[in-house]
Design goal:
mainly alpha; about 240 residues
Length: about 240
């Protein structure tokens, strides 16, 4: 079983590494945490050890399915819960297997690679869940996912197609999201020194970014997006045994 950092619970670390390797690994963890935060603060919190999931699990469908409150919302039976855990574990393993390649990358290149891995993990998870979830369950799962994604959802080809975004809108939204990602990386540097304050700033930043994106939509597109979100849902997390979080 991999070791854990005192602040980055849930991420298996390589044992007995030297200083340089540890410094590189620390940068990789920052990238992992940022991708999770972009996917949604609740997912990032789960990645730190809450909610019954281990690791960042792809920061999307896999992580959502490992959360007990999401499982309850979807009304999963015992068999579906076991299959959901398998999907989440495969997503986590995909990231773990890619750890070495991430350590050789720097800055924006590393971040882009993490985003690619996240996209691949979600695509694989979407195919897997279709085999054991009903259409209604899949639909609700995607609604919850879009709520967690915030403005990042508009970079999803499925969302772009559903809302019938024009090339001009895609370009404007991409610029907004890219600028947001740059600022998010800046915020995330303060996560270890001020976790609560940083999460609050990131949550506010996400709201502002989403508002900017929505301002680029037509009234019809905003109505369609609201329908894609469905009823608001707040993800809940259980503490670790012994009071850890």
């Amino acid at each position: 079983m991999g070791a854990e950092t005192s602040r980055g619970r849930g991420i298996d670390l390589l044992p007995a590494v030297g200083f340089d390797a540890m410094r590189t690994l620390s940068k990789t963890i920052v990238a992992l945490g940022l991708v999770a935060l972009m996917a949604g603060p609740a997912l990032a919190q789960q990645g730190r050890g809450g909610g019954g999931g281990r690791g960042f699990g792809g920061g999307g469908i896999g992580m959502l399915l490992s959360n007990a409150s999401v499982q309850q919302e979807l009304k999963l039976d015992a068999t579906q819960i076991e299959k959901a855990k398998e999907v989440a574990e495969k997503a986590r393993e995909k990231f773990t297997a890619s750890r070495e390649s991430l350590q050789s990358l720097q800055g924006e290149e590393r971040f882009k690679k993490m985003a690619e891995l996240n996209k691949e993990a979600n695509e694989e998870a979407n195919k897997a869940v279709a085999a054991f979830l009903s259409r209604d369950q899949v639909h609700r799962l995607h609604q919850i996912q879009h709520q967690q994604q915030g403005a990042q959802a508009f970079t999803d080809e499925h969302v772009q197609s559903r809302l019938k975004l024009t090339d001009a809108q895609k370009s404007d939204i991409d610029s907004i999201v890219q600028a947001s990602n740059t600022e998010m990386r800046s915020h995330f540097q303060n996560m270890q020194s001020d976790p609560e304050g940083t999460r609050a700033k990131i949550a506010e930043h996400r709201k502002e970014t989403l508002a900017k994106v929505e301002s680029k939509l037509t009234g019809e597109q905003r109505a369609a997006y609201k329908e894609m979100l469905g009823a608001p849902f707040e993800i809940k997390h259980e503490g670790r045994p012994g009071g850890g979080r």
